Each structure stands twice: as C-alpha cells, then as structure tokens.
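Researcher: We're teaching a course module on how sequence relates to structure. For the next exercise, students receive a sequence and then see the predicted structure as tokens, so they can try to spot secondary structure elements on their own. Here is the exercise chain.
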Amino acid sequence: MALPDLDASVGHSFGLEVDGITIKQISEVTGLKMEQDVIELKQNMADGKYVVKKLPGRIKAGEVVFTRGLTGDNSFEKWVKDSRFGKMGSARKNGVVVVYDYEGQAIKRYKIVRCWPKSLEIGTLKAGDTSVLTEKLTVTYEEMDVE
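Model: And here is the predicted structure for the students to work with:
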C-alpha cells in the first residue's frame, strides 16, 4: 500500500523476518545500505579532450545490526552457533526488514540475501544501572534488495 501524497513513513514501526519466521522485540535496526563499486573510465576524446566517465561496478556486501532487549528467546544464540561451528548451510538465511505505515500495513520490504551472524554483543552489565539490558546481533549479507 502506498502512502498518500505528502505523507512519510515513521521509523518506529518495523519488523524482522528471517526465513519466514518473525523475530520479535527488535528495538533498532542500523546499517541497511545498498552500495556498489564505481568504475572510473579515463579516456581522451577524438578532439584531445580528457574525460572521466563513472560506470556502475560490482554490488558490495554489507552489514546490518539488530538490537533488542535481552529476553529468554535464544534464536540469536542458535543462529550464531551455526555460523561459529561452520554449519553455513543452516547459518546462511534470507531476511526481510519490513517497514509499516500508521495502519500496520507493510509499505517497504528490505530483503537481505544470504545473511549470517558475524557477532553477538551483550550490553554493559553495571551495578546500580536501571537501563534495559540489550543484545546486538551483527549480520553480514551478500546483497540487499527492496521488494
């Protein structure tokens, strides 16, 4: 569903699906980026004028970080174990970050292809602190598509 003219999406309404399974309680997603190399073609024209043309190159792989409050859900840990022990057949997955409008309808889907977890970081443990303990999962992906 498209947004009406002059309306924009909000950054607080999103979800994460990995191989069709919804990962709950994600509080932040950073690093979603589509990027490719730039090839510079330098040449002299017939009239002797030097020109530089920029051409599209190879697609670059990327990394995205998912943050959520620490819960009893161990889906992040299971996924990390698969990649740590070389079980790349089960570690490489396809994921989708879905952005929703005010009515809960999906308006954009960012598909990360052949992704696997690179690291899992637990937030700071500090005596007397009252902030929510978080876990950050850094996922590397081979390409990103917008659906």
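Model: If you want an answer key for the exercise: DSSP finds two helices and ten strands in the chain. The first strand starts at residue 14 and ends at 18.
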